[in-house]
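Recall that a protein's primary structure is simply its ordered list of amino acids. Everything else, from secondary elements to tertiary packing, is in principle encoded there. The following example makes that idea concrete.
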Amino acid sequence: MSVNSKQYIVQKNSSQLIKSDAWCKFGFPAKLRTGGVYDIIPGFVSCLDCFRTLPYDGRTKYMIKHACVVASGSSTEPAVNKGMIDNYLLKKPAISKQDKEKMKEKFVIWSCSSIRPFSIIEDPGFIDILNEGIRIGQKYSGHIDVEELVVSAKTVGNNVAIMAEKYRNLLKPILIKQADDGCLCIAPDLWTDKRRKIAYIGITCTFVNDQFKPETIDLCCSEYDEYDKTGASVYLAIRKQLKLFDLDFYFDNKKLLFISDRGSNIRKALEGQDVLFCFGHRINNILQKAFYQIKSTKEKELETTTTTTTTTTTTVSKKRRIKELDSSDEENSSDDDEVYKKPSPSKQIEATTSLSSLPVKSKELLDTISASKSIVKYVKLTNINYEITLNDGVALQQSTITRWISLSSLLKTVEASLEHVRSILSTKTTAEKQKLNINRINLEGLRDLVTLLKIFEDVIKLIQHGDRPSLHMVYVGLNKLKSHLSGEDIDCNGEQIIIDDRHEGTNFFRKRLKQLLMVMFQLDKKHLAGALLHPLYRKLTFVNDYQRSKTHIYVRKLLTELYGYGTHQQGNNHLSAFGEPVKKKHRTIEDQFIDPDDDDQTFISDGTATNPTIDELDKYLKMSIDDQYKVSNPLIFWQNYQDKLPYLAKLARRLYSIPATSAGVERQFSASGLLINERRSSLNPDTVQNQQDLVSHFDLREIVPNCFFLDGLISPSIEEPSQRDELHLSLNRFRLHIKSTLRQIKGEFNLIIPNKNFLINGDEIDEEYIENLEFLVYN
């Protein structure tokens, strides 16, 4: 814009809803089009004075931190001289073809001889190390000893442990603050790695901070070293991990929130705590039971008895330990058969139908699922996916046992590439079994299954959003599932449609799923309270009057018990009937269950009311809410109304700190599984824990963006002489450890070292910037 001011300009933000002062010096960049009209370039904002352009996602924090070089031209602070890097960029030497070929050869030799994946060559960290080596080589004349530059594996391992411990210490006050506010939710779970069969306990925490921003942090993935996995032992393991963060007091006094699956040992360990059970796990269990993938309790007991009687090759003490660990693993997943109420054989016929009594047409669908799984497994083992994609087909995807909803993706890819697979298998003389499986697949039934399972997949994705609260989405998701299983849905144009099943057996499973959903899951009062505190769903239109009234009572009870509010308020506990919702064209799942328009309601001002008989809940339910707050994220509303509705805002922080699922801790286990591979099968569990903690370090930096501690996060090598001053790090180590971190930091932050404190703008970091910073640190 400074070069071509006619082609590009900065337009002021003309919105009437501007609240941030950042818009006084920022606007939207716009480009001139035919006719003399300027079109705004979406996703960016530009400074009105210096034309510095930043990405824009709705937040203004980077705009506020921007230090305009033009506006501060009279400042006495020295400007950063970028001449060195500009000259370097303009004078890039041409690399000869011979040198390029030599590098290719080196890469090939290294990746093949060390059995490394070819993709390691493109790893950003590896590229950064190469760039750093080139820069250092340019700086020094003469031969450089690579051994002096590269640190040892032992040094890296020691620094990983030190940095992880520093990270945990930085995390303690943050977690304690959230626990004091009653907004810390803990998700514990157990996991066993497939390589060494070592048991781990994982804990993830979620909270909404005082700025009304949701955060998720992995607390631990530590070795589970208790004697067994009974409820009492799991209790001790959870407490031990929480004690590392000084949270044992809150655990003992039941001041924490919990989200977990329904494993019996986890439930016993958390008895008396404030626990909500995972919606995602329950949906998975319902699907497994609906399609007869869960063995009956009698079958499980028979298998356990058989296994116990045949295990005779170990000592008595070792046998006892293995037996208890194995049985508790089985116990951990025994929630599959748990129901809130037994289905009635007369009213819920499909839910009580046994596999042996299944109608013939419905069995065809189970055969279709079984044949599809077998074909996908064969395709994966024989690498036929490559041939499928060459013929413009879709690569087949496998499903996982623990995530049964992944069957939706499997069936979808089978449907898309069925003819490709049939054509390829016809040329294989060793694929007779799979040719038979192809014929077992009923195409109409396959399409019905894809349609039926897709809605479950959509709901699971909906409740796993990490950038906003998800508790209220259980209310939305459950209503969506009920509607779809009843044979009604909304198409992509927002029009209501009637689902017409192609296969005769589909209706049986549709009814069975709906009945099992009713008997195996019930909305918790926290789910409804979360929906109540969302501006889009506050009327709870899609529940009955009794549930709505009970939710109002529950919210008022929480306000009194937690904050002492409402002891003198009368409140209105009458039933609130809103009638039938107005039918609109809502295209997304979230939009389909919002409340009807507020036009026919009587509202009070959103200002401070003087009537003592009207409490905060009444004010909230009756107030007119501006459309700018009727968005997916309810925290935007509560952040702006925390002064007008202070107690409800506190409660919103608490409730929205609880996620709808415990998927966070499951993702942590998945990451640990990637660490413990064949090449690193002997990895120490402490190292796994430390590496996972350092991955979470960047989450901490987001929570406390103005505080980055250099002291301790970079420590001298233990192999170096002990008399070396810790502050005077070598140039090489300084760059190897901190440069990649500085590159990723955006905006300003404080660099804190002993007796020194520097304000750094991460957006301005370049080679010369790091050199200047190094000079200040050393001197």
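The chain has a mean pLDDT of 76. Residues 399 and 407 are 5 Å apart (CA to CA).
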